[in-house]
Amino acid sequence: MNPRIAGVAAAAALLLNTACTVGPRYTRPTTPMTPTFKELPPGNDQWKASTPRDGEIKGKWWEIFNDPQLNALEESVEISNQNVKLAEANFRAARAAIALNRAGYYPTIGVTTSTSLAESGGAARATTATNGRIVGTGITQLPSISFGATWEPDLWGRVRLSVENATETTQALAGDVQSARLSYQATLAMDYYLLLSTDMQLKLLDDTIEAYSKALTLTLNRYQGGVASQADVAQARTQLETTRAERTDLDVARAQYEHAIAVLTGQPPANLSIPHGSITGPPPPIPVGLPSQLLERRPDIASAERRVAAANAEIGLAETAYYPTLTISASAGLQSQSWSNLFTWPARFWSVGPSLSQTLFDFGKRRAQVQQTEATYDAAVANYRQSVLMALQEVEDNLNALHVLAVEAAQQDVAVREAERSVELELARYKGGTDSYLNVITTQTIALNDERTAVTIRQRQMVAAVNLISALGGGWNASLLPNPDQLRQTNASPVTTTSGSK
After folding, report:
1. Mean pLDDT score of the chain, rounded to an integer?
2. pLDDT per position as a tens digit, 138-173
3. How far is CA 488 from the centre of its chain?
4. 335 in a domain, yes or no?
5. Among 329, 425, 452, 494, which is least packed by CB within 10 angstroms?
6. Is residue 127 one of the residues assigned to a domain?
7. Domain range holding 69?
8. Does any domain span residue 344?
9. CATH assignment at residue 389
10. Weakest-pLDDT range from 104-113, 137-146, 316-325, 326-335
11. φ/ψ (deg, to 5) at 226
12. C-alpha distance across the termini of the chain, in Å
């Protein structure tokens, strides 16, 4: 090897061997945590987990409700919802940024070919003629071909830190994809149960309208027989028409829920028609697990933690600005005064050498950049901890709602039965002429309100169950985040089926 080339290579090797990595080492921030959930129903072991694996929601979480119509709708969210596709596109863009930053590990290699014309002045031509060379017009052609390479060794970890930052940001966006999926899946399930509760209200009002029509007929017959007054007839007709108007108004709500579900599944509202149905029972028991498991089961928490790691890498990147930059450049090629001589040994040329640059004075710019990244890191830590607190609150809120609503539903069922019995008794008294029709109307109104309240409680139970599953992460786990090796693949998915490392 040429001694000069060997000297340059030895200097580069020495610098690489003495390189160090700057920036703080990353550790996951601590979070506020409790050993168990406060609002677990007392004395109800079906909500508790005997082992950690028992506290996980398995598979497609919506299948726990055992509703084929809901299952079919949920399957469309992931493949058709445009907001989920938007999150996936952001993930793919971030994945490409990893490859962009990884390219910094390697030299940039290029080739240049050129040709130029040059003319020497009259004095130069005269001198050439005196020396016995015939130049002609004094115009020469200079063709050349050169290959060049530039490489910046990763002395202080700039490239490594940029790759880490891009990788952790991409993992955070993978969590965002799952957060979007879970959010829209949960929204669809809630809209679905709101639609079913509206169907139950419609059925209830249809039955009530039929009963009120019979009551109106009875009152008309009594009026014609001289037993009832015209005021009784007016009251019966008013009650019937008011109920019909309430029933018509519910058609608006049902249509809007159906339209919302269509959009969530990525199709125009005109393309979807959901048959009328009902909520058949209370929600099934949902395995809750331990509060600490939320750190791994919630995609939004996993995303927030990955953004903390990315912010930590940003601090290191800012600190590398304090250190010099080494660039090694090399070029080689051919250059001649004619194309015929271009590919000859005398036409060769080459150059190689390092350059070292260092900022001496920047009047606080680098210090400000480090302070900025440190503040960004602190903000990411605060957001991570707040995400954990919000997750704990969501689980506690919905555990409490399910427990309280179960008690309220039982109480309301008793109220409905008693109200129905009161209506029967009051109608019998009215038919016997011992009571006025106003008391019948009052009793019927109370009964209808109790029945509608019972439907609303059932709907709130199902929505709370969906919210609880969503608060628990919907069966997702942080191990499904793609690891760095998987993210190098051009077809890497935001959700993997194998354990991913961070």
Report:
1. 85
2. 667 778 888 888 988 888 889 999 999 999 999 999
3. 21
4. no
5. 425
6. no
7. 18-80+154-323+364-487
8. no
9. 1.20.1600.10
10. 137-146
11. 80, 15
12. 43
Evaluate whether residue 121 is within a structural domain: no
Cα distance between residue 283 and residue 285, in whole Å: 7
User: 358: part of which helix (H) or strand (E)?
Assistant: none
C-alpha torsion 250→254→260→261, nearest 10: 160
DSSP-assigned beta bridge partners for residue 111: 147
Partner residues linked to 151 by β-bridges: 328
Which residues have CB under 8 Å from 53's CB, separation 6+?
none
Q: Quick check: 212 pLDDT over 80?
A: yes
- Predicted local distance difference test score (pLDDT) of residue 112: 85
The answer to whether the beta carbons of residues 472 and 182 sit under 8 Å apart is no
Q: How many CB atoms lie within 10 A of CB 149?
A: 15
Residues 6+ apart with CB under 8 A from 146: 111, 112, 113, 331, 332, 333, 334, 335, 349
| Cβ atoms 244, 209 nearer than 8 A | yes
Neighbours of 320 (CB within 10 A): 21
Residue with tokens 């998915």: 493
Residue 284 tokens, joined? 């099934």
Residue type, 223: Y
- CB neighbours of 132 closer than 8 A, spacing ≥ 6? none
SS3 53: helix
The closest alpha carbon to 243, from 385, 71, 449, belongs to 449
The whole-model pTM stands at 0.82
Q: Number of structural domains, the chain?
A: 1
Angle subtended at Cα 327 by Cα 326 and Cα 333, rounded to the nearest 5 degrees: 155
Looking at residue 43, its pLDDT comes to 59
